[in-house]
Design a protein that fits this description.
This protein is of the alpha+beta class. Helix content is 23%, strand content 34%.
Length: 125
C-alpha cells in the first residue's frame, strides 16, 4: 500500500452559491435584491446575475417557471436578526413574524416577489 495515499488531505468545500429563480424580469429582480434587500451586484451576463450581501451570494436566473420559484428556498444564518427583520419588513416581499419555531430556533421567513422563500435565523457566535 502506498503511504502517500493516506497523507492526502481531501479538498475542502468552502461555500455554496445557489442558482435562484428571479422571475421573468431580471432587471426588476436585480433592483429588488439591491434596493430592497441590500445585496450588491457581483456580475451580470445574459439572463443571469450574481448578487452578494456579506458572505451570502446568489446566482439569479431569469425564468417564468413559478413552480420552480415556489419550491426554492434557502435558510440563512445572520448576525443581527431583529435589525434585519425590521429592514426587510419595509421591502415589497411578504415578511413573516419573528418567532421561535417548534424546533427551538428564532427566525423569520419571507416570500420574495419571484415566489422564492428565504428563511433567516440568528447564527451561533
Amino acid at each position: 500500500m502506498d503511504i502517500e495515499m493516506h497523507s492526502i488531505v481531501p479538498p475542502a468545500l468552502l461555500s455554496v452559491t445557489p442558482l435562484v429563480p428571479a422571475g421573468p424580469d431580471l432587471v426588476e429582480a436585480i433592483r429588488f435584491y439591491t434596493d430592497e434587500l441590500g445585496f450588491a451586484i457581483v456580475w451580470e451576463g445574459g439572463e443571469m446575475a450574481g448578487v452578494r450581501r456579506g458572505r451570502v451570494e446568489f446566482n439569479l436566473v431569469q425564468n417564468s417557471n413559478r413552480e420552480w420559484a415556489a419550491n426554492a428556498s434557502a435558510s440563512i444564518g445572520v448576525d443581527g436578526l431583529d435589525a434585519l427583520h425590521e429592514e426587510y419588513r419595509k421591502s415589497s416581499a411578504q415578511v413573516g413574524p419573528l418567532e421561535v419555531k417548534s424546533w427551538g430556533r428564532r427566525e423569520f421567513h419571507m416570500i420574495l416577489p419571484s415566489g422564492v422563500c428565504l428563511q433567516f435565523f440568528e447564527a451561533a457566535a
